[in-house]
Specification:
Layout: H1 2-36, H2 44-52, H3 60-93
Length: 102
């Protein structure tokens, strides 16, 4: 019982670690890098400060450009989540060991 519990905890922890890496990769490399090049006013430091809450978006031009950079990146992460969910659902549906263990 202790070994099974430890394996479940290990799997859950590794899953969260991998998910953070996958979502961070999707957020930074897929969308953010391509969208940030369009705007001269916005750089990575500005985005990091804005997301962490240490910097206020006072100028409306910055806010609009910021939204055009951040929102597509967030949509990419959402798409990755949906893709992973579909893969997990498909694997569970096609599982040969569907019987309930009592």
């Amino acid at each position: 019982m202790g070994t099974a519990s430890a394996m479940i905890t290990l799997g859950r922890t590794l899953g969260q670690t991998r998910a953070a890496g996958i979502f961070g990769l999707a957020f930074n490399n897929v969308s953010l890098n391509s969208d940030i090049k369009k705007y001269n006013l916005i750089n990575r430091n500005f985005i990091n400060q804005s997301i962490s809450g240490t910097h206020q978006l006072d100028v409306i031009v910055h806010r609009d450009a910021f939204n055009e950079v951040i929102l597509p990146s967030m949509h990419t992460v959402f798409g990755v989540v949906l893709l992973l969910f579909a893969i997990v659902l498909l694997i569970n549906v096609l599982d040969k060991n569907k019987s309930v263990v009592k």
